[in-house]
TrEMBL record:
Gene3D superfamilies: 3.30.530.20. It holds the Pfam family Polyketide_cyc2. CDD domains: SRPBCC_1. InterPro entries: Polyketide_cyclase/dehydratase (IPR019587), START-like_dom_sf (IPR023393). It comes from Ruegeria denitrificans. This is Polyketide cyclase / dehydrase and lipid transport. SUPFAM superfamilies: Bet v1-like (SSF55961).
């Protein structure tokens, strides 16, 4: 009986340690990747300022070509919204709406993954001579949920590769059309 009590006590201590330790972890998950594209910002901006245009270079549609997509709002800019639905776990379901758009500079979107939470994404375009540095960033507030904070540590590993593939796709698309 003493052995069972010790094991139980050790398990409780481990759980408490994990919960308390989670509050020492970052409260936000942040992912960011950049690429230089041989084109002016004005040639790149239309591909990030329209959810319809992102379909041409999105890294997630290759995970599930059967993803159901629908659009609402204007064709581009603030209010342009994408809703998607997929059975694939890396794609899932949700909405993405452009909430800020500064021509040839910045596009900010709000993401809603339903029960998986919310996040924001940002595209920044910075001229560099004959090229443009494109930075694609993601940020999600993890709140006080201990499990979400531990999972936040893995966000860069889970999403970073997709961001790299997406930026590579965007680079190829823009440079071949420029």
């Amino acid at each position: 009986m003493r052995v069972i009590k010790r094991i139980f006590l050790i398990l409780i201590c481990l759980v408490l340690l994990l919960v308390v330790g989670s509050y020492l972890l970052p409260g936000k998950a942040v992912v960011s990747r950049s690429v230089s594209i041989e084109a002016p910002a004005s040639a790149i901006f239309p591909y990030v300022n329209s959810m319809q245009e992102t379909e041409k270079w999105s890294p997630w549609l290759s995970h599930d070509p059967e993803t159901q997509l629908s659009y609402s709002g204007p064709e581009a800019g603030v209010g342009n919204t994408l809703s998607w639905s997929s059975e694939h776990r890396q794609v899932g379901s949700g909405t993405q709406e452009i909430i800020e758009s500064l021509p040839d500079q910045t596009v900010k979107t709000a993401l809603d993954f339903g029960p998986r939470g919310t996040a924001s994404a940002l595209f920044q375009l910075a001229p560099e001579g004959d090229q443009t540095q494109v930075t694609w960033g993601f940020e999600s507030d993890l709140g006080l949920n201990p499990m979400a904070r531990w999972m936040g540590l893995m966000m860069d590993k889970w999403v970073g590769g997709d961001y790299e593939r997406g930026l590579s796709n965007l680079k190829e698309l823009v440079e071949s059309n420029n």
